[in-house]
Amino acid sequence: RRPPRSTQGVSSAASDVYKRQARVVQEAIKTLPSLSSEVALTNSHTGASLSITFDPGTIGKTGLQIKEILASENPSILLGGSDTLLHLALHTLHDGQEQRIADRLLAAFTE
Q1: In sequence order, what are the beta bridge partners of 87?
Q2: Residue 78: half-sphere exposure toward Cβ, Cα within 13 Å
């Protein structure tokens, strides 16, 4: 049985949360001209991810260094990727943590 049209399905509501979280993080990191980001929403078990592309020469850190910084604090932020591309799995964030995550990302890239 389908929910009434006025009721969002669970996956649609989750998608809205991921999009909002991604917007908050994107707004924060766009203040750094050496970074670019893109949101990818999928229907797989991972839900959604935010890809952040950067130049290690400009930032002064590799992707591995950024990942280690972010994994070492609470809440730990687990990222996939390479030396120039990081993937943040949005489904691993708790709703409401996005600003804290955005602040930590900025700090990891700038400090």
Answers
A1: 51, 80
A2: 6
Element (H, E) at 41: strand 35-41
* CB contact at 8 A, 78 and 71: yes
CB contact set of 101 (below 8 Å; sequence gap of 6+): 21, 25, 75, 77, 88, 93
| 59 — pLDDT class (breaks 50, 70, 90) | confident
Of 58, 94, 65, the C-alpha closest to 81 is: 65
- Taking the C-alpha atoms of residue 19 and residue 41, their distance in angstroms, rounded to an integer, is 8
**3-state SS record for 25-40:** HHHHHCCCCCEEEEEE
Question: What interhelical angle do 10-29 and 98-110 show, nearest 10?
Answer: 30
pTM: 0.70
20-40: pLDDT as tens digits? 877 888 888 888 877 787 766
